[in-house]
Amino acid sequence: MKAKAPFSTAIAIGFGLLTLLAYFLPNLLGFLRDLLIEWALGIVAFALLIGVVNLLAVHWRKVRSGAKGVYSAVLILSFAVTLIVVAWNKPTGQWSLWLFDYVQIPVEASLMAVVAVALIYAAARLLRRRMNGMLWVFFITALLILAGSAPLYFVQGVDLQGLRSFIANALAVAGARGILLGVALGVVATGVRILLGADRPYSG
Amino acid sequence: MAEIRCTNCGTVNPAGAKVCKSCRADLVAQSGDSGLPDWLSGLSSDDTLPSQPASDLPDWLSRLGSPSPSELSGATPSAEPPSGAPVPDWLSEITPRDKGDATVPDWTEELGITAAKAEEPTQPPATDEPEWLRRVRARQQAEQSQPAEDFFSAEPPPSAGAAAPEEGLPDWLSRMGQSEAPASRQEAFTGAQPFAQFEPSEEPPAPAAGAEGLPDWLAGLGEAASPPPASSSTPAFTPAFTSDADLEDFILDASAESETPPAVSAEPAELPEWVSQLSPDQELPEPARPVESAAEPELPPAQLPSWLEAMRPVESAAPIVSFRDEKDTYVESAGPLAGLRGVLPAEAEVARQRKPPTYSVKLQVSEAQQAHLAMLDALLKSEGQAKPIASAGGIAALPLLRVVIALALALAVFWTLWSDLDMVAMPSPDKTPAEVGDLINWVNALPPQSPVLVAFDYEPALSGEMDAAAKVVIEDMMGRQAHFVTLSTSPLGPMVAEHLFGLIAETQQVTYPHRTNLGYLPGGPSGLFGFAANPRSAIPLGLSGGDDWQTPPLQAVHSIADFAMLLVITDNADTARQWIEQVRPWLGDKPLTMVVSAQAEPLVRPYYHTGPKQVNGLVVSLMGSSAYEARRGLLGLTRAYWDSFSATILVTLFLVLLGGSINLLLAWLAERKQTGAV
Amino acid sequence: MNWLGILWDSLGLLFLGFAFVLVIVFTLTGRKPAPRSLRDMPVFSRLRDAVGLAVEAGTRLHVSTGWGGVLGLRGLSGVLGLSMLERITRAASASDRPPVATAGESALAILSQDTWRGIHRSTNPEENLLAAQLVGLTPFSYAAGVLPVIYDEQVSATVLAGHFGSEVALLTDAAERQKSLVVAGSDNLPAQAVLYASAGETLIGEELFASGAYLNAGPMHQASLRSQDVIRWLLILVILFGAIARWVGSL
Fold first, then answer.
1. How far is A108 from chain C (nearest CA, A)?
2. From the candidates A146, A177, A193, which should be mutated to test the interface with C, based on the most C CB atoms within 10 A?
3. Which of B19, B213, B583, C226 is the most exposed place for a label (fewest CB within 10 A)?
4. What is the ipTM of this complex?
């Protein structure tokens, strides 16, 4: 264990154990759990503000340095305009919704479309790798799921959707559950390490 | 019996010894023939040697002139040698040292060698010398000016002070003058070397006027016999022995060991004819050289057997050539090796005083070092300079394949939307999935104007899919006059909710009034847990900022179980699980329904199949919404997207298969090329 | 007293207590772990090589902890990303260009800055600011904010460890175009599927949670990994027992 930051470590371990016990002993420590969670939510909300300030500071420095500062200037300008509009028109106001409907959603939807292109490109190049059994299973499964996702007007007589349903609800679910169980075990182990002070994301 | 002294090395051997214990010389032969070779022993003046009549002398010897017997035999030295050995003439010619003369060693006095005056011709010994030698001496005395033609005749001229042989000289001294015709001059010097030292720093003594053609040592002997000039302080001969006492002892011992002095034949030996024919003026003939005579038949070379030929040591047979490095011009000037060349210097360099070299304090940097310094300096300077980032090229940098994929998808979407051909049929209402049917039933069972909690937990990026899937469900609930209470665990959720309701309002041309937006619920699962435990406490104020809990019908809602239904619209399976795990236990018998994205279906569907169901109804993406619309007879966004959805899936399948095949072929070709190269 | 009810309510607590005991016991007994006790995972070897090459070549390393935050199940994958950030930053501390960290959530960004500051002990606020950045507050805005870092910072290797969505395909695509290595792991299943198809090296499932043990973060990491193995086998036995029991009961 690290010997540094003992006070921070003691606080982290203490409050973590209290919250954990409060989940299992709600009658005894329920009030403490609610209190601690409210404190945590307040800290996270304040951290959100700090993060926004950090974001602006980084881009402001980029504007000053001149290295591709145009994009950072657009970001800072957009932030300012959105802040002013939403603060003035409220989040559900007309202009706020206009910004969301005609700026936010199209931009993110376009990024999602690029994700689709990137995934198709990655799937096509998948066979360029040194293929093994698992990669072939992955590739064929992806094709079958795609084929069964929607009725193909030129494909008749083949129950692709039933095949997709079987793969998705039987085979994929089984594998997904196994992975999730392993992830859950990893989460438990990580939580134990944090409560024991071995993993300390806070350097103090 | 007296001890025997070896004439070869001078070692004293016990009496009766036959071989010298030191040099293994034959003592018997030495005592028998007095060490002389056979041919010389006949010419010896020893008593054992028969005297030869003068007529038997070789011509050369007779030509030289036999000394009178009295001259040969007589020896009138000034002092008799203790041993009684005959003293050779040359030795007797050596002038003894006067009392005040330091140049003549003392031992000559003891040997009975008297200093013969230069003016006076010395009388040759009468008794110990061979006859022929006496005659030679006598002739030389008469002909002082005649140069010696060869070394046999190189007797010291009378002017040189030919000393009369001293009586009592040891045998080896007497034998030294008795050689007849040595094969070479070098042989004649045998035995005489101990007394001769070559002084390279000194000019070799000039031969006597009457000694031209005489060997040097003999000429030197003549000069040494004459009294040295007063100015000369160094004798012509440097004694070999370092101390006179050693030589003196050696000579005394040798002379003492001799029992009988060798008798010198009174009769002169017969000189060889050629000797008598020689004249001082006569030039010595060139030494005979082997001349191949054409007339004489050549001796065939020896035919050595092969095995003997092989045994011949080539290296040892090779003549040893003395090598002198001509570049070495250093001549030693000090020490015992003075005058020699090719020796190591006697004095060390350090012993020679010379001015120490001066070294410059300035740093000496060569050109190569300067070049290296410049290179290093350039490297260090380049480290601080930012390297320009190579900008991507123009058209060549475009991701062509990606552009092709995007264009293909866009073409499929826009063409189907623009054509509006309804190529693909909607699902049959009879084949409605069970989860969709259950949701429909729960919606049908909603009481009018009942509060329904709707969670909008999907990202704006997936609004195309989720809006189409959730719109039909919301519109169906609107038909039941449900009061929507929207909530979101995502910061953009409230905006997404407003966006969907605005979309519905655009479709129906009317804004639905029965809805309350509670806004954003922070804290993730903890926030959900807190909201589920006490909704009013978790969100005291709505998005509008007012106390929305006081507006009807929220006035009757004090716990989450007071809502008629919970509808979760999400694209994330984790969010769906959080709602299920945190809120479901608080709902009681109220249904929890979901509209999820296709990517979340595998993880959410098991919750529908549990017993009791944790998810009471489920609509999965466009597939579920199409079935919902078909079952309800409604026309929503799903119908509008259905053809495009099918077309894009077809294009995607085609692109993936085509691209995969091409890449597979390329990979196979590359692998084949690699294995072929190996 | 309803002991069965109490036991049922305390099952979770007992399970956590058992995990605690296992980790402590394995930590105390495994101070000197036997060599080759972990199965070979080439992804971590390539990561170590990439760190070394980046230090030598003077290129940057990029570590991104995702947008899952620090609360809930998503938060622990972000904490794991912070642990990897600390290990990589410490390993590449001698590089001319230190690693850059990006996050899609404020708390993760603050913790990333804290981690970087703890290693470099830098008093330059501007340097701390650029070393760990908050690039976006939503998943796709986060992805949009990470792209310039990959394109402009001469990143030779990108480590994605945290909670991501399907938008991670944008990051892997950008990294591939920049010919940089991508080592990625997420607790989100759709992200794992995307990473499996597009990333160079992928950590599937709990392999992400084993990164601490493979990067020599400490003996307790290896002890927790061994604890996971023990509990995993216990769960397998319980599942099998339950399935067999249900099947027998249905007969």
1. 6
2. A193
3. B19
4. 0.88
